[in-house]
Task: structure prediction
Amino acid sequence: MKKSKQLPDYPKITEFHGHECLGTAIGYRVGEMAIEKLSTKKAVDEEFLAIVENNSCSVDAIQVVTGCTMGKGNLIFKDYGKQVYTFLNRNTGNAIKISLKLDLETINPHFHEARMKAFSSKADEADKKEFEKQKDVLNRKILEMPGEELFKMEKVEMEPPEKARIYQTIKCKECGDLFSEHRARVKDGKIVCIPCYEN
Result:
């Protein structure tokens, strides 16, 4: 895989996430493609925005590669369970949508069978070792395959979401916890947090 000088080494993703896996390999490639296609450096503040449609391991890799985080407000999570990722460069207005177009079994046909055996009640050490071997093969293929074979990428038009705002902190009148005012609810005439409102 030809690596941009702007990208962190893949081991940095493993260090951040805690282990190497298929999700981090996918996220690394997605982040790599986004930076390459949108001609941006690693994000500082909010000029680079990522919208992720799952909360898998891939999102950790995307955070490390692009610098987009929930804390900065430039990582937006949509709970769709889809391997779909949209990126926007606020400075240029350019945006792309990247989606995984090959399933894991297509990338490595031996992976599914090895996984089924390894997680069955009859699995032995040989089955578990074979699964780890096939997982490593799959991981390597994801990291090395040409991006256009692995992903569908398309330019999209989108309005930039509002930049992150800093809201006032208020105290819940029921539990006493401090919370952000834009999450306030009114219950029996009192300003409360969402959990107290729902209980």
Summary: The chain has two domains: 10-155, 169-198. The first helix runs from residue 10 to 17. DSSP finds eight helices and nine strands in the chain. The mean pLDDT is 90.
